[in-house]
Amino acid sequence: MSKNLIYVLLAVKALMLVWGILGLIEYFVPAAGLGLQDENFPAGVQFLHWLLITLTGTVFVVGYTTGWTYTPFATITMYATLATICFVETVDFNAFGGGDRRFFIMALEYVLYIVLSTYLLRSEHVRMRFQATIG
C-alpha cells in the first residue's frame, strides 16, 4: 500500500493544482463563473486560499517529477500554510457552512495533514523516491 500511496498522492496533488489554477482564474476573471469562490471570504483571504492550494499542488508535482530531495519537507510546510488559512477561514469567516460542524471538518482536515505528513516522513518508498535522509 505504501508504494502505491505516493501515486495516489501525486494524482490528488495534480488535481489540487488544477483546482487552484481554476480558482485563481475565477478570482481574477469573475465572469468565468466557475462557482469556486466563497463569498464569506474577503478578497485577500480568497486570493491566499487559491494561491496556497496552487502552490501546494505545484510543490509536490514538480518535486515528484524532478526528484527534488526537499519535496516531503516543502509539502509538509505547505500543509502548515493550508492549516493556517483553514483556521482563519473557519473561525473568522464561517467556512464549511458555519455552525459547529465547521470545527469538525477543520479537525478532519488537520488529521489528514498529520497522516500525510507522517507518511511523507516515514515511508521507505518516499525516502527512496526523494533520496533523502528523513527522520
From the N-terminal CA to the C-terminal CA, the straight-line distance is 20 Å
Shape: globular
- Got a strand count? 0
Summed over residues and divided by their number, the pLDDT gives a mean of 94
Helix content: over 70%
Question: Over all CA atoms, what is the radius of gyration?
Answer: 16 Å
- The parts where pLDDT drops under 50 for at least 5 residues are none
- Please give the count of helices: 5
Largest sheet: none
Structural class label: mainly alpha
The topology string of helices and strands comes to HHHHH
Strand content: under 5%
What layout of secondary structure does this protein have?
Layout: H1 2-28, H2 43-66, H3 71-93, H4 101-122, H5 124-130
Helix pairs in contact: 1-2, 2-3, 3-4
In short:
With 135 residues, the chain is mostly helical.
Q: What does this protein look like?
A:
- The chain is mainly α and 135 residues long.
- It contains five helices and no strands.
- The protein is globular, with a radius of gyration of 16 Å.
- The chain starts with a helix and ends in a 5-residue tail after the last helix.
